[in-house]
């Protein structure tokens, strides 16, 4: 273990004032217990609840916290719904890419932890410390994916494995069919080891720093995602996917071997969870040790258990 190499935590923020006190306490506790230097990079945009003043004061008081704030011109966003409002996926992708720019500017970093800020519960500090002890050559990304007490994956838009590789960007309304949702909402509670996936929600994720130079977030399908669907799904998923309304799901993915994306949720162009494109680009670059880690637990909102 190279303790001389530092850790950077990265977060995007918007209207997170109710959570700042808990985040500060969690960060200070992690920093006091960790054997390596830790820095925290926060990118904020367009908050209206006092988040900016709270986060700026924190950064002024703690030099290991780096705070960046912007007002974003929403006219730059291409995806629009019927009310001409921008798509939250595109807004999030923009913010996360801006965050990565600032994270990558810090030198001598081995590990990056992406951490969402809109959680009222304290960070799972002990579990994070355990994950940091895993040798870096055993993973590219260890992801915390939210699961509630009934075993349902919360962010099914970005979850992908061999059995449930398609999201609504491929399936359209069929994505919401009970049979398919039942397949997606797998129960990971009985798993002891890491669970290989193609993509999952990285609201709490531990990654090797070098990966950030090889990927980015996008709210739109990318060439890497096309390759993922063609090369991986064409070989495996079409054989194991369930049938919906007596039609094979794969039929909707590969008409004439071309990828067809749906404009779901009334947006003018096809959109996709930016976590999916982030990991698809890593897969295309040969970084396929992307795993959910069952022993990393974090409560997310009241009475809801999130497991990595």
Task: Briefly say what this structure is.
This protein has 308 residues and is an alpha/beta fold.
Question: What can you see in these coordinates?
Answer:
This protein is an alpha/beta fold. The protein has one domain: Spore Coat Polysaccharide Biosynthesis Protein SpsA, Chain A, CATH 3.90.550.10. The C terminus is likely disordered.
In whole angstroms, the N-to-C terminal distance is 23 Å
Radius of gyration: 19 Å
Read across the widest sheet, the strand sequence of neighbours is 3-2-1-4-7-5-10-6
Percent range for helical residues? 25-40%
CATH topology: Spore Coat Polysaccharide Biosynthesis Protein SpsA, Chain A
Instruction: Report the major sheet.
Output: 8 strands, mixed
Oligomeric state of the chains in view = single chain
Low-confidence stretches: 303-308
Report mean pLDDT, rounded to a whole number.
Answer: 87
Q: Rough shape?
A: globular
Strand residue content: 15-25%
Kindly report the name of the CATH homologous superfamily. Spore Coat Polysaccharide Biosynthesis Protein SpsA, Chain A
- Which class do the helix and strand fractions yield? alpha/beta
Helix count, per DSSP? Answer: 9
Work out the number of β strands: 12
Q: So what's the CATH class?
A: Alpha Beta
Feature tags:
alpha/beta, 308 residues, disordered C terminus, 12 strands, 8-stranded mixed β-sheet, two-stranded antiparallel sheet, 31% helix, Spore Coat Polysaccharide Biosynthesis Protein SpsA, Chain A, globular
Summarize the topology.
Elements: E1 6-13, H1 20-33, E2 38-45, H2 51-61, E3 65-70, H3 88-104, E4 109-115, H4 125-132, E5 141-144, H5 168-171, H6 178-184, E6 195-196, E7 204-208, H7 223-240, E8 243-244, E9 247-248, H8 250-253, H9 274-284, E10 290-292, E11 297-299, E12 305-307
